[in-house]
Predict the 3D structure of the following.
Amino acid sequence: MLHLKFIFLIMLGSILSANVIKVDDTTNLYNLLSNSKIYIDKTKSLTIEQIKLKSSEFKKNEKDLLSYGYSPNFDVWIKFTLENTTNTRVRKIIEYDNALTTEVTFIDTNNNIIDNDGLFHMKSDRTTLKPIFNIELNPYETNTYYIKASSYITTLIIKLNILTQNNFFENETKHQTILALFFGAMLVLAIYNLFIYFFTKDQSYLYYVLYIVGIIAHQLVYTGMSNIYLLNKESIVYVITFASLLVSFPIFSLALFTKTFLHTTQYPIYNKILNIFLFLIPISIVVLSTTDLFNKYRNMLALLLFVYLLIVTIYAAIKKNKQAYFILFGWAVILIASILMFLSGIGVFNFHLHFPYIIEVAFSLEAIIFSIALATKINRLQIEKNNAQKNLIMQQKNEKVRLEIKVEEKTKELKLLLKELNHRVKNNMQTIVSLLRLQNDQIEDERYQNIFTVIQNRINAMSHLHELLYQQDDIFHVDTYRYIEVLIDEVRGSYGSNIEIILDVQAELKIEDAIYCGLILNELITNSFKYAFIDKKGIISITLKKEKGFYKLYVKDNGIGFNQNQETDALGYILINSLVTDQLSGTIEIESKNGVTAEITWRDENENINS
């Protein structure tokens, strides 16, 4: 009989020791929950003394994470025992790895310590995103701890870690740094698009900014950053009470963005259903937010709306809406992230366990994709602007008024996007020049090579202007000295020689005048380089000044000159006269005496209007 009792005691001791978690100075355990026991208190009234009496009713838990979804009607008690296996005192941190649980109570039975934390019991000096509890174990001491968790507004998700102090604070610093970088990037993106909205008055940008702000607000609360850096205890309670708004607002803004960006009015049935969603979401938040049914399914309507937005985008893509192609992938990324968030919220699957920053990565990727989608608007308008500019030069004089009206209409829309447009125009022109150069390399006939070189320089004359406009802040005037200097270098590079050029610029040109002056200068100095100097040596002087409301451009060389009595139908000469008379509304006088002197005069139209 005594032998049986001894065996029973050994077995009992083995069972008890199996539930004891052995720790030392280096122990870091991320699966503390799977070494614990669980008891569900459906009365929500048991005290710690009563819980101790129910020790036999605690059930062994094998999961590293417990997800109960929206669970306001019960408390979850977690019980675990730690044993210090060393002869020195051990200090550890118990981390409750969820920032949104409303109430968390930690109980140290040996030392009679009760510590409350959670959203509604946050300490004013807490600097960690999630609740933590400090423990100490004396040499070879064994202690049993209890944690009670409940959440009657947010979903109840429980995960426990036991860490050394150094390891915990190292992880916490890294985690907060990554989140800070994410919020900083999203904030910069929101400010950037807000400025574009102010410039363009395009509502798509405004709704996109509201969406980003909604995402930032949601993630600040969801990650716990707002709880320790932005809000006090009373504010946290108030914000969490309207948690449904944090979920619905970004989706609502996203729906408005989709409606304007894809112009869903061209799809009447889909647009009508979308309007119904946009009507129901605010109504559901205002009217039903206090009901238990709404609290349980508060994210469902927002998730349905998001799925519907994906359907609308797919339909728009099928209908050859080019804007939809760019954002369809963005919808897919966010849909996956939203589904994971929903599954986490209802307790089906906690993605944070395997992919801790998947939401931040998804939102960042989506933001990049949407920014590209918005940029396609600029590209489309760029093409229209380029076509309008080409037509302005090529059309007959009687077409001028019609073209100016069209350009003016487009310019109103493009005015504040001109800097980006100039960059893209420059790139396109440089591509054309590169293609011409490649073709030129394959031509052996010197005459045709010369023609290709002239064409390249004409295109470069416009390309350099767009490059300068992209690099500077003033979009109404160009750095005239630098622009002319670049033109000279381009021509000199094409016809390498020892010709000296004297440049005197005393006035700044408006963009409209600069592009025509650049083409005129290109033609004049190209002629000088090609024909004026037999021995490829000489001087060219260029002077630009402004006198009494008139611009004057002088281009003079000391070359061999030409026969003014001989008529010419050269394209360069025709182009110069057309640009001066038709585009600048000016006059040109060319004199061949001791070289060639060209004097071009035109009025500053703005000064004329003001006067």
Observations:
- The chain has 19 helices and 17 strands.
- The two ends are 121 Å apart (CA to CA).
